[in-house]
Amino acid sequence: MTHMHRRRAAQSAAVLAATLGSLFAGSAPAAEVVDVELDQATILRLPDRVATLVIGNPLIADASIQPGGLMVLTGKGYGSTNLVALDRDGTVLMSRSILVTGAKDHVVVVYRGVARESYSCAPTCERRITLGDSPEFFDASLNQSGARNSNAGSSGSGGQTPPR
Q1: How far is residue 155's CA from residue 164's CA, in Å, rounded to a whole number?
Q2: Which end of the chain is more exposed for a tag (fewer CB within 10 A), N or C?
Q3: 61 and 81 Cβ atoms separated by less than 8 Å
Q4: Is 97 in contact with 80 (CB distance < 8 Å)?
Q5: What distance, in Å, lies between the first and last C-alpha atoms of the chain?
Q6: Which residues are within 8 A (CB) of 42 and not within 5 positions of it... i.e. 6 or more apart?
Q7: Eight-class DSSP state of 113
Q8: Residue 78: half-sphere exposure toward Cβ, Cα within 13 Å
């Protein structure tokens, strides 16, 4: 290869590198991260014209659109996923990463060998239904909570109309 050809090849490589660099530098920034605690909700304002919400993994987070351009984002399972808001033409209006973590306050985790139990301790410790607890503890807590809610719902007025 002659000196002239090498010089042109080097110039072409430099132009290509600069072009690729500007393409990647101009690409969309990394998605903003939204932190949500498990079993908690957070409110986000949606951009105008949102027609579709897509959650990457609905076992980790759930979203519902509310009036006034608001969205309720609820942590359903530990981990990370993403949220994409699209308009009617399929244009991405918003993209966010979602990180769902465990409760940070007033939670005590007890390990008995490989069995795990979680308690909410604010101000006294009570059983807490938490993903990752041993099946026996989790199921017992869930059954007690379900029975309590069922009894509370049926005991209201005893099926009678309250006096006026």
Answers
A1: 19
A2: C
A3: yes
A4: yes
A5: 102
A6: 34, 36, 72, 73
A7: T
A8: 7
Closest Cα to residue 99, out of 146, 42, 48? 42
CATH number of 32-101: 2.60.40.1080
CA distance 65 to 51: 10
Which pLDDT score, from 0 to 100, does residue 102 have? 87
pLDDT for 30? 57
Q: Encoding tokens for residue 28?
A: 């969309």
Contact 129, 141 (CB under 8 A): yes
- pLDDT by 10-residue block (mean), the chain, 164 residues: 48 42 45 90 94 94 93 94 96 96 88 94 89 93 89 65 50
* Annotated domain spans of the chain: 32-101, 107-151
